[in-house]
Structures are given as structure tokens and as C-alpha cells.
Amino acid sequence: MSYAPASDRYQKMQYPRCGQSGLKLPSISLGLWHNFGDVDDFENARAMVRCAFDAGVTHFDLANNYGPTAGSAERTFGKLLADDFRPYRDELLISTKAGYGMWEGPYGEWGSRKYMISSLDQSLKRLGLDYVDIFYSHRPDPDTPMEETMGALDFAVRSGRALYAGISNYSAEQTREAVRILRELGTPCTIHQPSYNIFDRWVESGLLDVLDDEGIGSIVFCPLAQGMLTNKYLENVPSESRAVKEHGCLRQDAVIEKLAQVRALNEIALARGQSLAQMAITWVLRRGTVTSALIGASRPQQILDNIAALNAASLSTEELQAIDEICFSA
Ligand SMILES: NC(=O)c1ccc[n+]([C@@H]2O[C@H](COP(=O)([O-])OP(=O)(O)OC[C@H]3O[C@@H](n4cnc5c(N)ncnc54)[C@H](OP(=O)(O)O)[C@@H]3O)[C@@H](O)[C@H]2O)c1
Fold this sequence. Notes:
The protein has helices spanning 42-54, 72-85, 113-127, 146-158, 172-185, 207-214, 252-257, 259-271, 276-284, 300-307, 317-328; strands at residues 28-31, 59-61, 93-98, 132-137, 162-168, 189-193, 217-221, 290-295. By secondary structure, the chain is α/β, with parallel strands linked by helices. It has a single domain (9-233, 276-312), classed as Alpha-Beta Barrel (TIM Barrel). The chain has an 8-stranded parallel barrel with strand order 1-2-3-4-5-6-7-8, surrounded by 5 helices. The mean pLDDT is 96. Bound molecules: NADP nicotinamide-adenine-dinucleotide phosphate.
């Protein structure tokens, strides 16, 4: 059935500026790491992207290797663009990345110019696009000079294959270096994509300070700790969950290990009149340096539940302390 987006879609979302750049991101963005591969149901993928766009989510995050199989999430999104979203291309912010293993031989992963540009060209083909909005180095490469990887990002932008350059999973120190090199090349580093959630706070030990100093925004991935920071695992491990999927990256023992903390956090969320997923999103967005929470979903309703977090009151000092006590009590 032909698609017409909701006419009130821009009234439901907030669009903060990404650092000091001109780029505005939705406070909640949708990632296609899981549930958009060729092993997944295409009509469910379509329903999720439509639902997100109808609710004001303008940003969709991909990478060359998302699937499984690797590359298939980009193909899924390419088909959705062709079927439903072609008239709305200029309303969409589409990102992809290169860094992880994609093809055999010495040029199929990491951060060489050879790999980065070939991979981006493959991504554009799968997506059916002339350019992506953001192109990321997905991970720092210990063996390639940073100048070469940043040079590849600069070339991607100058050649019109991408509008903005970003880095993901770079430490505070690596970020300073990458930002300096990109600035010298004349293509600013617009965005950083690190992991961040109530359980995973590594960005607080330096990275967020560097981003603040440099005026760079961030989009944080796994804000729900892959589903652990939701009410999904409170009673058991449901058969329809990432923790039981063969290709999932969430281990059941990791879920079980955190259960007592998750239940305690859930009590705080309920006392605030929020779901745990909503509180986890309110928590990551409390910091100005975090421009967008990059969620995943397996069904449309999860997206709507998570977006409702934007209507919540900020966390009080007492609530933040109670959350910390639960996290650091283990
Ligand atoms: N740059 C990187 O290295 C990197 C690495 C990882 C991810 N990412 C990006 O970050 C995105 C998000 O990662 P993620 O999927 O792990 O994020 P997440 O938001 O932490 O977890 C998403 C999962 O949580 C569950 N969920 C979501 N909303 C829910 C709700 N309201 N109630 C109950 N369960 C809910 C679903 O699990 P079920 O599927 O079990 O229902 C969903 O698949 C990825 O798609 C990707 O774009 C980037």
C-alpha cells in the first residue's frame, strides 16, 4: 500500500543541534543493526521505519555489516527508500559506517583509504543513494595512520559521497587526534557515536569532556543495553527476544547477571510514572553533549513507547543517586 507520512510528524519530536554544527538530529534515532536483515520479516521492517518517520524520527543509522547477512540491512533500507521514502529523501538523515569485516583479503576491514572508500561505494549501491548524510569510521584502526583514515572521511565528503564525517568507538585521546586531523583537512568531525547507558558509562571518563571542549555532538548507541534496560526480561527470557537469537549479540547469562539491578531500576522508573526503557532514555539524554539516543527495536510499538520518554520530567538528584547506588552496589 502506498505510504503517506503523518502530517503532524514534526510536532512530536525535538531536534537539538549536533554540537556546534548546523546539523539537527532527532532526540531519538532508529538504528538498523538488528531486525532489518534478510533473515528478518521485511513487512515488519517497513512498519517500523514508517512508524518512526510518522513520529518525527528523521535519522536512520546503518553500517556496511548490519544484517545478517552483512549488507542486507542496507539493502532492506534501500528497498524501503525506493518503495516509500524517495519523495522524502531530503527530510531524512541516513548514516553508514565502515570498519568491520566485509570481504575477504587485506582490504576488507579496518581503516585504510582503500577499504573505506570501496566500502562506502558498496553501501551507496545497496542503499540506492548518491550520497549518505553521515559517513563514519566505525572503529579506530591500530595499524593504519590516523591521517589515512581521516583522509578517507575527508575524501568521502569532498567527493560528494557523504555530507558529514563521524567517528565511532574512538577513545577520548583518539578523538582529540581525529578531530585535529579532520580540522586541518578542512572537513570537521561533526559527530561521535559511542555506546552509553546506565550500565555502560565509559564515555564519562574523558570522552564527553573532549566532545564538550571541541563542540562536537554525540549519538549514543545501545541506550537500553540491547533490551536489558526494559521490562522485557523482568520475569523470564521471552522466546522473541535478542537474548535467544542465534545471531544476537546479547548473552542470556549477561541478562540474568543483571536481573536484580534491572528489577530495582524498574521500581524507580515506576515511581516516576515511566517504563524502565523510557527512564533509560531520559537518563542518557540528561547530558547536553548527548544529542540523540540511538535505539533499536523489533516492533513498532517499542519505538512509540521509547519516544514517549521525551515527555518525561528530568531526573532529580535523588533519583540519579538512587540509580547510581543500584549500579555500583554490584
Ligand atoms: N557504532 C557501533 O559500534 C554500534 C554498535 C551497536 C549498535 N549501534 C547502533 O545502535 C543502534 C541501537 O542498538 P541496540 O539495538 O543495541 O539498542 P538498544 O535500544 O539498547 O536495544 C534495542 C533492543 O531493546 C529492545 N527494546 C527496545 N525498545 C523496547 C521497549 N520499549 N520495550 C521492550 N524492549 C524494547 C528490543 O529487543 P528485542 O529485539 O529483544 O525485542 C530492541 O531490539 C543499532 O541499531 C546501531 O544503529 C552502533
